[in-house]
Amino acid sequence: MEEEEVVAEEILDLPVEIISQILETNPTSSIKFIKIKHAIYAYWRVFRNVQDSLKGTNWKEEMGRVRNQGLCSDTCWAVVAAELVSALLFIKKINKTYIEYSAQDILDFADPEKARNCNRHDHYCYTLSIRKGLHYVLREGLQKEEHRPYKRCRHASEIPARIPRDLAHIDGVEMLSFDEALIKLETQPIGASLHIFMPDYKLVKKLYL
Fold it and tell me: For the domain bounded by 53-184, which CATH number is listed?
């Protein structure tokens, strides 16, 4: 009874709009709350049937190793974009072997102005989207990891000149709804940004590949 009263108090602290969104999902589990410092996190499960063709798909064999982005949490968008390019070119047999392409290339040049002006106590990482990272690849191609290895964030003065050789190229970047993404998953992996805070959750509606 005591636990139920605590949960009730925490629900009352949530805006009505958020409570309505939780109920609209028709949770298939209990709603649980976690307090961390000044924030309250609510989580629950919603089970959804997917087509049988997805159940046997194991993209781990096509995605290569899991890359370590180190302590720079703001570089995830570039790492995901580079991994997608590596996987897609291998799956579509454009590359006969799996080739790692450079997340650092995307970090260094996708938005040079933002990279140059982002300095938070000698921390030069900047946030961007998977979509913008992939659009950079669409415009400029993408270097191999061996030609521009991952160094994480660095000041503009430390970025070496770009040598365009052995570049990977992609045909386009698609924005997908959730249902469209499930269909695309039958033939390839996709990239998605997971937004768990407001207002980001309401603003982001699409997935990218």
Answer: 3.90.70.10
